[in-house]
């Protein structure tokens, strides 16, 4: 009897917390368990409907149809008067699956500023970036599983509001562009922070360009593709386990010397090359 009283006391303490703190706690367990708390009491019945962070994963379900039904239930039952701060989607299978489109359409139509997509191991697929092109999306994370199960992107990264981009284990496609001063991220005008980890180029290409007037932070990790960098506002540069990096500062105008940050890039390249393998 004493144990039951202690459990009830603890339950009451948790229920008495403000909604925003409960939302924070539930964000660590995923939306599936958050929805399941609705059966605990009337206090918990609608807590999940106002969660600002939505975390969907096919790993929580035995079949994809069940997951798709769950996604539909959550998005239809959510209180849309509460803004969504972030959406996380972890899934396996084709991008054309209905639940993928339903979640991404929700992100775009509700002006969600932060999106994270994790692709579980499976067949190689192409992910059209037009699916996440948005004037409100500010932070995007896309994570594959390995080179063997890499995700190929289309060449058009047109996300005008995007400020932070983290890409991991993707196959990047630069398209048929012949202008060397146009890069993968030229149409991400607001981009400030870029992280590229374990990514390769489609078609067997061994180099790509990062030309961006506003980029301030760049991280290159676990790669072997040559990278041509022209980022006059760059303040932070991190290079880890990246082979064959070729870094170039701004092109000189009227034979004027290049800015001093170019020497920083050259120094970083030199230090990387001198490290023992």
UniProtKB/TrEMBL annotation:
- Per the UniProt record, one Pfam family is F-box
Lineage top rank: taxon: Eukaryota
Q: What are the coiled-coil residue ranges?
A: none
Among InterPro entries, the record links this protein to:
F-box-like_dom_sf, F-box_AtFBL13-like, F-box_dom, LRR_dom_sf
- Annotated signal sequence is none
What's this protein's name? F-box domain, leucine-rich repeat domain superfamily, F-box-like domain superfamily
Task: Name all F-box domain ranges.
Answer: 17-57
Q: Where are the transmembrane segments?
A: none
């Amino acid at each position: 009897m004493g144990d039951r009283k202690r459990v009830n006391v603890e339950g009451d303490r948790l229920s008495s917390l403000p909604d925003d703190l409960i939302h924070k706690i539930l964000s660590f367990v995923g939306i599936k368990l958050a929805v399941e708390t609705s059966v605990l009491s009337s206090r918990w019945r609608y807590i999940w409907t106002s969660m600002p962070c939505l975390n969907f994963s096919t790993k929580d379900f035995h079949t994809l149809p069940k997951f798709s039904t769950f996604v539909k239930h959550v998005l239809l039952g959510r209180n849309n008067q509460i803004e969504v701060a972030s959406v996380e989607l972890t899934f396996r299978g084709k991008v054309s699956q209905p639940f993928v489109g339903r979640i991404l359409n929700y992100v775009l139509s509700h002006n969600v500023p932060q999106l994270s997509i994790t692709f579980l191991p499976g067949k190689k697929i192409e992910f059209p970036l037009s699916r996440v092109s948005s004037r409100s999306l500010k932070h995007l994370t896309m994570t594959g599983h390995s080179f063997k199960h890499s995700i190929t992107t289309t060449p058009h990264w047109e996300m005008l509001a995007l400020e932070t981009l983290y890409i991991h284990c993707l196959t990047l496609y630069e398209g048929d562009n012949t202008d060397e001063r146009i890069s993968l991220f030229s149409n991400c005008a607001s981009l400030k922070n870029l992280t590229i980890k374990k990514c390769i180029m489609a078609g067997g290409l061994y180099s790509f360009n990062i030309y961006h007037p506003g980029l301030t932070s760049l991280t290159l990790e676990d790669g072997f593709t040559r990278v041509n960098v022209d980022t006059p506002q760059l303040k932070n540069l991190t290079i880890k386990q990246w082979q064959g990096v070729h870094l170039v500062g701004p092109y000189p105008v009227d034979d004027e010397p290049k800015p001093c940050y170019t020497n920083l890039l050259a120094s970083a390249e030199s230090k990387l090359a001198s490290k023992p393998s």
